[in-house]
Inverse folding.
């Protein structure tokens, strides 16, 4: 079993437009969380246009956006490889007094590897995220910049050493805005464009089968809470009044 995480700094944001938005793209709309807003959430099938929905409509709990895929699978039998790729496009904003200091992707599923194959009978799950930071501390950036991160899970029949049926796999990826921005911010990222690719790949050999499915995909933002200056003054005055009453 093998996993990998990598990051690439300051990529040209043209990559976000890779594969574009096909006519079959599904518009899920806007989702307003407690302090985080996901705007214009759109799903597109890159590898098999028109096969949407793969991730399906999300649900929102507090600030977490949760997808429960029902059609995001890849399967190979007796040789041909298979690939399935679901793309998400959306903007992410924060409410007054809040900013993003990180964004986590968490996902899991299951896979099967059977037959008489070896290292070429494989399953892979991968996720890639492109983030263009447009505003920090509610101030638009003169020069918005983009970052790319990816993570993957892969295994094969030889590595497993035996047939496996519906074994679990999981994957997580964390984008650390605090490290990216340094110590020069108060709230954090307050406006960004995001593109996420969810990809499943299988390959098989003669008399073998490879199957992988994604069962859950979740976005978990990390936010700051910094009171406005006026709020700080009120808090300080309140503390002084309490102290005087006790004296």
């Amino acid at each position: 079993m093998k996993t990998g995480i990598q990051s690439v700094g300051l990529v040209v944001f043209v990559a976000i437009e890779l594969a574009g938005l096909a006519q079959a793209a599904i518009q899920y709309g806007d989702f307003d969380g407690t302090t985080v807003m996901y705007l214009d959430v759109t799903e597109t099938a890159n590898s098999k246009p028109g096969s949407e929905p793969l991730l399906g409509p999300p649900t929102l709990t507090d600030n977490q956006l949760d997808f429960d895929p029902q059609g995001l699978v890849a399967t190979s039998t007796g040789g041909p490889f298979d690939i399935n790729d679901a793309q998400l496009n959306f903007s992410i904003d924060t409410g007054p007094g809040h900013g993003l200091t990180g964004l986590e992707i968490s996902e899991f599923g299951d896979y099967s590897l059977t037959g008489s194959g070896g290292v070429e009978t494989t399953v892979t799950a991968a996720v890639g995220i492109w983030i263009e930071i447009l505003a920090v501390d509610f101030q638009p950036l003169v020069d918005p910049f983009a970052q790319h991160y990816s993570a993957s899970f892969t295994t094969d029949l030889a590595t497993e050493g035996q047939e496996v049926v519906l074994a679990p796999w999981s994957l997580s990826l964390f984008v650390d805005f605090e490290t990216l921005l340094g110590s020069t911010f108060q709230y954090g990222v307050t406006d960004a464009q995001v593109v996420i690719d969810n990809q499943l790949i299988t390959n098989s050999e003669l008399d073998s089968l490879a199957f992988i499915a994604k069962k859950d995909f979740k976005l978990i933002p990390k936010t700051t809470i910094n009171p406005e200056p006026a709020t700080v003054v009120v808090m300080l005055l309140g503390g002084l009044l309490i102290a005087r009453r006790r004296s």
Remarks:
- Residues 2-246 form one domain.
- The two ends are 65 Å apart (CA to CA).
